[in-house]
């Protein structure tokens, strides 16, 4: 069995070859030359299914294993007609990942749902010059589609998150937060808006230190290959006040430029 490619927004699996063996049950051994997700590529990925079943145009595996090279339990359902894919992974007890790839008319939709996912597993996607997560878990869902104006959404809940950088000037621990993000591509740049509800935790971002909970960050702007722009931002610090701001960040040059700021005084406390 050979599948040339499975394509979706931010996802590609290429040169998939499989060997079927039939005895009392049908077993499947898959070799995937390359799997690319959000620009990161894994090569020579192997998967095995000791009990493969065919239901009309669908191939169903309920007790498989993914080798990355660590062995991770998996199950999947794949349509040879539509090339839709429903893949579930269980890297550890209490941790679940589910990836679905679906077709709707001419649009392909990729959905990644996670439950108690270890955040350090995302470090391979993390920009090399950003502080990296070192603890915590995340649950929620990310959705991408490749319509003419591609779009993406994320709704994530973080628990006991920690991060740091090599300098020690940027670090956080025991962070609990809810993050929502909506983005749509219009031409080359992406237009985005987000909201972060800070429930608890401590963050040092030299020279600032933030602790406690009840803080909220709302922001909107644009992103392209060169820079991230915050066109409108409001940081509401519980018991202190609000800060309105704009900024431009260049991740490659590690530079940031702030725009106009406006402080709004809290009724019960002094100005920020």
Q: Which features would summarize this protein structure in a list?
A:
single chain, 272 residues, mainly beta, 20-stranded antiparallel beta sheet, disordered C terminus
Secondary structure: helix percent = under 10%
Mean pLDDT value: 85
Q: Could you tell me the number of beta strands?
A: 20
Q: Helical element count? A: 0
Structural class: mainly beta
Largest sheet: 20 strands, antiparallel
* N-to-C span: 64 Å
Anisotropy-based shape: elongated
Cα Rg = 22 Å
Order of helices and strands: EEEEEEEEEEEEEEEEEEEE
The percent range for strand residues is: over 45%
Q: Detail the poorly predicted runs.
A: 266-272
Characterization of this structure:
- The chain has a domain at 147-272.
- The protein is elongated and about 70 Å long.
- The model is unreliable at 266-272 (pLDDT under 50).
- The protein has 272 residues and is an all-beta fold.
- The chain is 0% helix and 71% strand.
- It contains no helices and 20 strands.
Brief summary of the model shown:
The chain is mainly β. The chain has strands at residues 2-8, 11-22, 26-37, 40-49, 52-55, 58-67, 71-79, 85-92, 95-104, 107-118, 132-145, 151-164, 170-185, 190-205, 208-210, 215-223, 228-237, 241-250, 255-258, 262-265.
């Amino acid at each position: 069995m050979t599948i040339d490619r499975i394509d979706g927004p931010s996802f590609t699996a290429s040169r998939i070859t499989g060997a079927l063996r039939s005895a009392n049950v049908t077993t499947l051994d898959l070799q995937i030359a390359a799997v690319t997700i959000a620009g990161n590529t894994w090569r020579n990925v192997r998967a095995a299914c000791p009990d493969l079943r065919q239901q009309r145009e669908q191939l169903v595996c309920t007790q498989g294993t993914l080798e990355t090279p660590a062995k991770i339990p998996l199950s999947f359902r794949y349509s040879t007609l539509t090339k839709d894919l429903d893949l579930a992974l269980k890297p550890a007890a209490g941790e679940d990942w589910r990836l679905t790839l679906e077709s709707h008319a001419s649009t392909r939709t990729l959905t990644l749902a996670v439950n108690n996912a270890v955040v350090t597993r995302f470090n391979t996607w993390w920009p090399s010059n950003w502080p990296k997560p070192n603890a915590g878990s995340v649950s929620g869902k990310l959705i991408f589609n490749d319509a003419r104006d591609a779009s993406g959404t994320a709704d994530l809940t973080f628990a006991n998150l920690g991060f740091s950088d090599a300098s020690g000037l940027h670090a956080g621990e025991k962070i609990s937060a809810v993050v929502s993000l909506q983005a749509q591509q219009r031409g080359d740049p992406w237009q985005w808006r987000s909201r972060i509800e800070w429930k608890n935790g401590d963050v040092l971002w030299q020279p600032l230190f933030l602790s406690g909970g009840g803080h909220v960050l709302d922001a909107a702007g644009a992103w392209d290959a060169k820079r991230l722009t915050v066109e409108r931002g409001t940081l509401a610090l519980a018991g202190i006040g609000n800060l309105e701001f704009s900024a431009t960040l260049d991740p490659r040059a590690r530079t940031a430029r702030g725009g106009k700021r406006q402080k709004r005084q809290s009724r019960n406390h002094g100005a920020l």
